[in-house]
Amino acid sequence: MSVSRKLTQGPVWAVLLALLPGPALAEWRVLSDAEIEGVLTGRTVVYDDVGWQIFTEAGRTAFHAGEARMGQTSLGEWIVRDGQSCQRWVRLGDWACYTVEYDGEDGVRFIDDHGNVSAGRFQAE
After folding, report:
1. CA-CA distance, 59 to 24, in Å (whole number)?
2. Helix/strand/coil (H/E/C) assignment for every residue in 27-90
3. Using 50, 70 and 90 to split pLDDT, how confident is the model at 71?
4. What mean pLDDT value characterizes the chain?
């Protein structure tokens, strides 16, 4: 094999690999108050290896922790205010608010004021 042929093989493969279809990258978007209500209301979010959470139309929420002993369900309420989904749990009493990001398909992320992210997927209806 000639020297010139050896030098061109690497870049050709790199170009071909770049053209192959790969997994689509989600484009996350921060939601407005109305969008948060529209996306969450009446839906169940499943958090990988953690549990699930329901957001009812009546403003109630339930979080079921699958990893807890015998599965524990916490009850609370949720509202939307100032561009955030806010949740208050019966046993805790204080509101915790999260910026909500949505990928336009089935992915949703809740981000607290410290930048901590809880990511989940909407359960298929």
Report:
1. 34
2. CCEECCHHHHHHHHCCEEEEECCCEEEEECCCCEEEEEECCCCCCEEEEEEEEEECCEEEEEEC
3. low
4. 82
CB atoms near residue 9 (< 10 Å) = 10
Cα separation, 57 vs 78, whole angstroms: 10
CA dist 49 → 6, 28, 36, 59, 104 (Å) = 48, 22, 24, 25, 23
Convert the pLDDT of each residue in 5-45 to its tens digit.
444 444 433 333 333 333 456 799 999 999 999 999 999 99
pLDDT at residue 6 in the model: 46
- The answer to whether the Cα torsion of 65, 69, 70, 75 is positive or negative is negative
CA atoms of 124 and 89, how far apart (whole Å): 25
